[in-house]
Amino acid sequence: MSEAIVTSFGRVRRSRAEVLPLYFTCDAAIPIGRKVLPYGLGRSYGDACLNEGGVLLATRGLDRFVELDLEHELVSCESGVSLGEVLALAVPRGFFLPVVPGTKEVTVGGAIAHDVHGKNHHLCGTFGSQVESLLLMRSNGERLVCSRTENPQLFAATVGGLGLTGLILQATLRLRRITSAQIEVETLALPDLEAFFALSRDSDPHFEYTVAWIDSRARGPKLGRGLLYRGNHVEERGPLKAPPLRPSFTFPCELPFSLLNRASLPLMNALHYARSRLEVGKRRVDLGPFFFPLDGLGRWNLVYGRRGFFQFQTLVPPDRAPEAIRAILSTVAASGQGSFLTVLKNFGSRASPGLLSFPRPGTTLALDFANRGETTRRLFGDLHALVREAGGRIYPAKDALMPPEQFQAQHADVLADFRSCMDPAFSSSFWRRVTGD
Amino acid sequence: MTERTYRRVLVLGASSGIAQAVIRRLASQGAQLFLVARSAERLAAVAADARVRGAKEVLTHPQDLDDVDAHPSLLDRAFAALGTVDLTFVAYGVLGTSEDCERDIALTQRVLLTDFAAPALFCQALAMRLVGQGTGTLAVLGSVAGDRGRKSNYAYGGAKGGLAVFLAGLRQRLYRHGVHVLTVKPGWVDTPMTASLRKNALYAKPDRVAGDILRAVEEGEDILYTPGFWRLVMGIVKAIPERIFKRFSL
C-alpha cells in the first residue's frame, strides 16, 4: 500500500489516498478500520472515484476472463477488465456488448458501479440491465453472488451503487451477436432544438443508436442547432475487427492553460458544424470511431490544462424536456463558457435494476466546461437551479459540484433502501459531499 | 514455422505478472499450455483466463519450485502431457531488498534459493530432457539487477547474476543439441512483485515485456534486455570501474 495523489478524469481536485493494488480475486482482502473505495480506470469526472484520506482498492490488476459461453452469449470476467479488453475478445468472435458508453477505457466494475448508458438507451437500457450476475466481496470477508434472483436487493443496490456496497470481484455480462464490425450511420443537420425533438422521436424506433451533437454557442433562433447521428449495425457479413486497444495519439503533457478557451471554442464549434454538415448523409464507420471517438486521442482530458474541467450531465423528464433544455442551453450560450462536447439524447423507458441508476425516461444533456474557478461555479449554480425547477437529475459519474439537496431529492424514494445495503467500510469523497456522512 | 516453435509451452511461475502477460499472448495464438505455480487458486484463475483467450489446452500443476526434490516428477508430468515441449518459460522469482535481507536472514536464504538455486537445478534437469528431445527453447527470467552488484539489492542481484552465468554455460552446453537458451533481463516492470515500490517513467508494462520475450524466442536471441534501452544503461553501469562504483549510492 502506498500513499498517492489521485485525480479523477476532470482533474479538478488532487486527492490524497492510500492505494492498494489488487491482483487476484482469490486472495483479495479489504483492510480493516479504514474507509475504502474500489478504483478502476479513474474515468469518472468528479469525485465519485476519489476517497480523500482513505484507501483506494485498485482493481485494474483483476483483469482476467473467467468464462466465455458463446452458446448462451455470456462472458464472465474479473471487475478490472476494461470494456476495450472485452471487445478485443468478443468482436473477432462475432459478438459485441449490448450497451457501451462513450469510452471503452472503463472497467467492468466501474461500468456497473455507475450503471453507464450508451447511444441505444432508448431500446436497450443501461449497462446494468445487461449484467447477469456479479460476485461481491463485503468488508466482513463474505463473498456473495448477486443477481436478479440471488441477493436481489444487494444486486439492485450494487448496479449504479457508486462502489459503495462492496468490492465487485467478478461479473457475468450478456453479449449480442454481430455480423460486421461496422455501423451504418446517417448524419442529419439539426437547424434548431425543435428539430432535435422531432427527428429523435421519428428516429428512435428505427435506429438502435441515436445521439445529437449540439453547437453550444448558437443562440436565438439557432439555439440547439447541431447534428443528429443515427445508426444500426451493418447486417451483412463483414470484417470483425475489434476497436484498437491503444490510442493512435496520446497527449504528451499537461499544459498550463486550456486549449479549449474563449478564443478557440466558438471557432471549433463552428468548424465542427460546418465540416460535419458536409458529411450529412449515410456512410459506414468502424465501431471505434462511432462509439468511442475520443479513445483515439489518449489522455484528451489534458487539453483542458492544469486547472482541469467540469462535466455537467442532466436528465429532465419528457414533459419538461423541451423548455428545460432550451433554458439550459440559453444559459450556457449567454455565459460565453462554451462547451465543445455537447451531447443530447433521449432516454427510453426500459428500467434499470439499479436503485441509484441515473437514466430515466426523458432527455439527457451533457456539457463540459474548462475550470475557470468562481465563474464556472456560478454557471453551475444557475444550471443546477434550472435542473431542480424541471424536476431533473444530475449524473454522479460526471459530477463534482451538485448541491447535496439535489442528490437527496433525486434519489429520495430509494435512499433508505440503498443505505441499508451499503457496506459500512465503503465510502467516497462524492458520497461524503452529497450526504454529509 | 515460427508459429510452431512455441505451440507447446511449459510455464513455471505462471502467476507472476510477466508470465501472465506471456501466457495471454500464447493463449490467443492457440498454444497448448502446462502451467505451474505455487498457489492452486491463482493458477486456476490464470488458466481460466488462458482458456477464454483461445488456448488449445491448459493443464495446471500447483507446485512450489523451491521444493527441488519435486522437479523430476513435475518434468515427467509436463513432458507426458505436452509430448514435445517447444518452449519452457521460467518466470519464477522473489524480490528482496538488502534492507529487508539484512534484517531477516531467512529472506536472504529464500532469495538465494528461489532466484538462483531452485531455477538453476530445474533448468539443469530440464536441459537433459531437452537434449533427448533435440529441439526447444528455454527462456529464463533474469534481471538487469544481475549485471552488477549494488548495495540496495545485492542478494537478489547476486542470485540473478549467478543464474545468468549458469544459463550462459547451459547455452553453450545445449547449443550442439539444437536447444536454445534465452536469458531475459527485464528492467523495472509494473507487476505484483514491484507493487510496493514507487513507480517512475522507466517502468514498463508487462505486455510490452512479453512481446519482446516472444519476439526474442522467435529470433533465437541469447540475451534480451527489455525494454531495449536497458542494454545501453547496463552497458554504461558495467563500464564504471569498481573503485569508483563502490562510492556510489545505487
Order of helices and strands of chain B: EHEHEHEHHEHEHEHH
Number of domains of chain B: 1
Taken together, the total number of domains of chain A comes to: 2
> Given this structure, which CATH class of chain B is correct?
Alpha Beta
Shape call of chain B: globular
Termini Cα gap of chain A = 25 Å
Query: What proportion of the residues of chain A is helical, as a percent range?
Result: 10-25%
Most extensive interface between two protein chains, with residue counts: A-B, 17 and 16 residues
Using the coordinates shown, work out and report the CATH topology of chain B: Rossmann fold
- Cα separation of the termini of chain B: 44 Å
The percent range for strand residues of chain A is: 25-35%
What's the helix count of chain A?
Answer: 12
Quaternary state reads heterodimer
Largest sheet of chain A: 8 strands, antiparallel
Largest sheet of chain B: 7 strands, parallel
Find the structural class of chain B using helix and strand composition: alpha/beta
Give a quick summary of the entry.
The complex is a heterodimer of chains A (437) and B (250). In chain A, 25% of the residues lie in helices and 25% in strands. Chain A is an alpha+beta fold and 437 residues long.
Would you give an account of this structure?
The complex is a heterodimer of chains A (437) and B (250). Chain A has 437 residues and is of the alpha+beta class. Helices cover 25% and strands 25% of the residues of chain A. Chain A has helices spanning 83-90, 108-113, 121-124, 152-158, 193-203, 264-278, 287-291, 321-335, 374-389, 404-410, 415-421, 429-435; strands at residues 2-6, 15-21, 36-39, 55-58, 65-69, 74-78, 95-96, 131-137, 143-147, 167-174, 176-177, 182-190, 209-214, 226-233, 249-250, 281-286, 297-298, 309-316, 343-347, 362-370, 393-394. Chain A has an 8-stranded antiparallel beta sheet with strand order 16-12-14-13-19-20-18-21, sandwiched between helices. Chain A has a 5-stranded antiparallel beta sheet with strand order 5-6-10-8-9. In chain A, a hairpin with an 8-residue loop joins strand 1 (2-6) and strand 2 (15-21). The model of chain A has no long low-confidence stretch (mean pLDDT 94). Chain B has one domain: Rossmann fold. Chain B contains 9 helices and 7 strands; from the N terminus they run E-H-E-H-E-H-E-H-H-E-H-E-H-E-H-H. Chain B has helices at 17-28, 40-53, 71-82, 98-103, 105-133, 154-175, 206-219, 229-239, 242-245, and strands spanning 8-12, 32-37, 57-62, 87-90, 137-141, 180-186, 223-226. In chain B, helix 1 (17-28) packs parallel to helix 2 (40-53). At the A-B interface, strand 5 of A face helix 2 of B.
